[in-house]
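EI: anyone free to look at a 135-residue chain?
SC: sure, send it
EI:
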Amino acid sequence: MPVSSLIPPAVDQLADLALWEDELASDPVARESALVSRLRQVPDQRAKRGRRHALAVVLVLTACATLVVGGDSVMAIWQWAARAPQAQLARIGARRDPLTGHCLVPSESTFRRVLADLEADLLDRATCGYVGLRS
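SC: here you go
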């Protein structure tokens, strides 16, 4: 793995968590709730000004894209997220367009920036405690 990019470790970590959740839960609703609740615990280090999409939304879409299609690039993650159904986007708390009411998907550059700046230790703290409880 190239040292120049920190995106693959974060994507791999989210994919591992999503796969692990998928194996343990028989109820898809419970699985999604557990995944979303754990990822909501990751502190958002971004400045509040200009923040349009919740960190949890970006992380959940990343985890799901890597689980469903094995997308390991930011472009693949964004393409999968862009095709996600409105009901699923609403369920994870995606931001709505005030004029149309449609849920909005973060842009490819937002995924890239958020995943590149994500502090892996914060993601670890939020997810590892849960893994310990479920083992």
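EI: The chain has one domain: 7-134.
SC: 👍
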